[in-house]
Amino acid sequence: MKLEAVIFDLDGVITDTAHYHFLAWKHLAEQIGVPFDEVFNEKLKGVDRMGSLNLILAQGDLSFSEEEKVALATQKNMHYQELIAGMTPADLLPGAVQALDSVRAAGLKVGLASVSRNAFTVLESLGITDKFDYIVDASTIQRGKPDPEIFLKAAHELGVAPEHCLGIEDAVAGVASIKAAGMYAVGVGDPEVLSQADQVIPDLTAFNIQAFLQ
Ligand code: BG6
Ligand code: MG
């Protein structure tokens, strides 16, 4: 494989916002009587806001009108935004900046493919917006992960063929999206959970771009 671009997920890869999404969904789920734990949360990782709410409602065998669902999703998002309000560059996960900088220093393109509509705010708080050559605007994506649309859009905008891209993800749905896009998938987390990935690393301190360039 001739690698020309690396496309990063945000939540759970570059910063631990996956935990804030977990806390906000858990709060909402318990409020409507749906049991919520880390195992069920794994199914929500990488899934967009409405998709996540629909999974929670299905888990509780609940059905709400569209209007009620929008109100619940808005409530979760407001809680999430309170949780991320104080974020600073200190919230970058170990190895994140080094990984981003090493890709650019190697002459490759750097992309971001997060389905979060809060991604631009989080990147600004972390102070890393300018480390990306292209950031997908989640509001322009029709089909969330595991559909390949978001990774294909990033590759297209970077001007790189999907087979020359490597995607990095912490979510099962995210790894599936990368593989469906025809890219090499690096999972960040538990190899048993991310079994579809080509390679799994515990965190970005273990990401070595040089290993992919030889
Ligand atoms: C993903 C997270 O990055 O973004 C999901 O893994 C989250 O947990 C999704 O639901 C959508 O985020 P937001 O900020 O648009 O509600
Ligand atoms: Mg993620």
Topology:
Layout: E1 5-8, H1 17-31, H2 38-44, H3 49-59, H4 66-84, H5 96-105, E2 109-112, H6 119-126, E3 134-135, H7 149-158, E4 165-169, H8 172-180, E5 184-188, E6 199-201
Parallel strand pairs: 1-2, 1-4, 2-3, 4-5, 5-6
Helix pairs in contact: 1-4, 3-4
The chain binds 6-O-phosphono-beta-D-glucopyranose and magnesium ion (MG).
6-O-phosphono-beta-D-glucopyranose binds at residues 11, 18, 21, 44-49, 52, 77, 114-118, 171.
Give a brief description.
The protein has 214 residues and is α/β, with parallel strands linked by helices. It has eight helices and six strands, in the order βαααααβαβαβαββ. It folds into two domains: 5-16 and 89-213, Rossmann fold (3-Layer(aba) Sandwich); 18-84, DNA polymerase, domain 1, CATH 1.10.150.
Give the C-alpha Rg.
17 Å
| Structural class estimated from helices and strands | alpha/beta
As a percent range, the share of strand residues is: 5-15%
In total, the number of domains comes to: 2
Key terms:
214 residues, alpha/beta, Rossmann fold, DNA polymerase, domain 1, 2 domains, six-stranded parallel beta sheet, 8 helices, 6 strands, 42% helix, binds 6-O-phosphono-beta-D-glucopyranose, binds magnesium ion
Textual characterization of the structure:
The protein has 214 residues and is of the alpha/beta class. The chain is 42% helix and 11% strand. It has eight helices and six strands. The protein has helices at residues 17-31, 38-44, 49-59, 66-84, 96-105, 119-126, 149-158, 172-180; strands at residues 5-8, 109-112, 134-135, 165-169, 184-188, 199-201. A six-stranded parallel sheet has the order 3-2-1-4-5-6. Helix 6 links the parallel strand 2 (109-112) and strand 3 (134-135). It starts with a strand and ends in a 13-residue tail after the last strand. It binds 6-O-phosphono-beta-D-glucopyranose and magnesium ion (MG).
